[in-house]
Amino acid sequence: MTHDNATPNETLAASPDPPFGSNAVRLGTRQWMIATLLIVAILTALPRIWTQIEPLAEWPDYRLPHAHSEDYWQYARLVARANSRQQIAVIGDSVIWGEYVTPQQTLTHYLNEQDAGASFVNLGLNGAHPLALAGLVSSYTTPLRDAPVLLHCNLLWLSSLERDLSIDKKLTFNHPRLVPQFSPQIPCYEAPLAERMGIVVDRNLTVRGWAMHLRIAFYEGQAIPSWTLDHPYENPLDEIQLTAPPLDVELRHDPLPWFESGIDQQDIPWIDLETSLQWQAFRHTVEHLQARGNRVFVVVGPLNEHLLTPASRERYQALRQGAQSWLSRQDIPHTLPPLLPSKEYADASHPLSAGYARWARVLFAEPAFIRWLDDETP
Amino acid sequence: MLFHTWPFPLFFIVVFAVFLALKKTRCWLPWLLIASYFFYGWWNPLYLLLIVYSTLLDYVVVKLMDGSRRKKFWLLFSIANNLFLLGFFKYAVFVTDNINDLLAGAGASWHLPAPDVLLPVGISFFTFQSMSYTIDFYRGEIPRERSFIRFAAFVSLFPQLVAGPIERAKELLPQLNQFPRIRRKDITDGLSLFVVGMFKKVALADYLAAYVDPIYATPDRFDAPALLLATFAFAWQIYFDFSGYTDMARGAARAMGFKLMVNFNNPYLATSLGDFWSRWHISLSTWFRDYVYLPLGGNRHGGWLTYRNLFLTMVVSGLWHGAAWTYIVWGALHAIATMATRQAERSSWYRHRLPTFIKQTLVFGFVCFAWIFFRAADLDDAWLIVSRIFSAGWGDPRFPLLAMLLVGSVWAYQFVYESPARRMLESSGVRVAIVVLMIVYLFIIPGSRGAPFLYFQF
Fold this sequence. Notes:
By secondary structure, chain A is of the alpha/beta class.
């Protein structure tokens, strides 16, 4: 700090062209072009090559494991496979995914059991509220262009301002990386601009989705540097197991009817369709799918109305009616399945296995559904 | 707005595009100033009041100084004003706390109220930059800058505004006289610097911070190996963090045709403390040399006075870093070690017989030791860490091998760079391979990209 004579650095700093730096990492135009080409090639090729070396589960009724719910890159792989096999994508939240049931007790399983010549694939994503679903559909289901889509509408997301994400108070919610980052504005989402921009970039760069997949699939959801803090002496590469995941048969919750789990009747307030952010997002999803050439069939409910107080049930039915009116006005094939028996619900919206089986039978008894299916079945 | 977060590239692209579009007009300089103020105001628009005040005052003071017989008065006025700003915003809490401690020690029943002051980002940097202009003008080393906009752009140039390098007026102001000549080489050099800086910050500094922070937060819970390795890791963290910032600052400026000074030159290869300070935060160390050490007398009076000047300069430099006793001790330690190595360098045995690697190891070891005081939350923690390093058990430090590998690779690179084998690193293939590896790593491996730079707090 206190050299009386100028140091070599200082002498250079005073000259018109100061030295480049203290390393040799300095590329010229041609070298930058070569480096750019190599970087683009590597970043493009890596995720593609990975799809060849990491197998997807082949067993029937496969669904994205719950712990991998934020692995959207893997979700996109399932979508691409469904498309290549000409399966009908059944898209929705945990009601489609099957929160209280095994993969062999989900709606898609029972739909497939009907043996209608069509094959349905469970593309439900845990916690995917309509705002997240809109992002999921627009960013990660592009291979489904022109394919049939059975879309579930869970009106429970409109049950309160909190669930609708329209409350003006900071909230933590599922799938922040899927919701719109800038428009429409979500009042309870207060991520800084840098984070929002990062999310937009991540959604549009496959390699970033793949990097997230590696974290979720092999590194307990952490970036490799963070993972090494917990496993300081392990080789991160040893964690990569390129085998198909085992059959997922474990239940996440006891499959009890709602009234046996200590859930009481609830006076859910519900919010207006017109002001609901979630409903707006759902409509956007439908319109987006249609604009992309997908033939969409919407299933609204069946929500557990047994759990609602009479006043709440009345408000819900008005809401349901409003949703149906919009679908009819838009000429979108849809159905509103009747209420399932009370004992076939596990909570406010999730059926139990028997409920799913009944729901599938009901769908196949629905002329609109059969007509839509006939159009889609070769 | 942080260089390594997404808003910055967007900001830079817009600023650069408009900057180029205004090339043939007089508006490029006002645009640069607007962009710089926008960049600074991004943290807190209130900060702008401070930087505008500081800039305006020094501009007016130099104008009053020009042709005046009371030059010294105006110089002292400017210095007092800048030091008051620094003192108020940076040291008010420190001074109040210490006075209150003294009062409590003396049994006084009252105490001074704790000041509620927000420390503006980069205040130490822009006030020093502005002061250098006033002092250099007073010394007759530079002419008066007549354009306020040019002077304001010099003080606030956005790439180096919040954490340096602290540029001298005679270097940077002339570059603002006309639209810079931007060659293709400037763009590619700027990109190269930026990528290296980004890698240092995101891939290395933030990784090491994740190991260091919990250990330094609760040092009493860790054994000697963990404390030693956390100190070693912090030495590299602060280097990667600060030199990474500088690289990105220089890269962004270089792409716009402005050349900023080198601020770090592989400091952990230094063979003496004097050598270390000619490689570490060069813009600050030369600032203190020119504006504190030399005015105190430098080494002109030999012997003890030289050491007194050295000691005072180092302690003030420590205090510049932060308002805490830990920084003062850190500065004092460096002063003592600088004197010691200066003395040692007088012996031919040290200069010629002691292997360079041993000297480098000794210097690095001391610098790491001093970092304990720089990094610890307070002096009690610092003493605790030092004592535990010598007395605590030898439990597993759990330092990630990957971090060791990365740091080791950089260190080895620096050794090779400063050796005759440097040519190996200069081959086109190696350079391209390194850039490709760094960028691919940045896309795939690191976690979040939002940790602020360490030196912003100074």
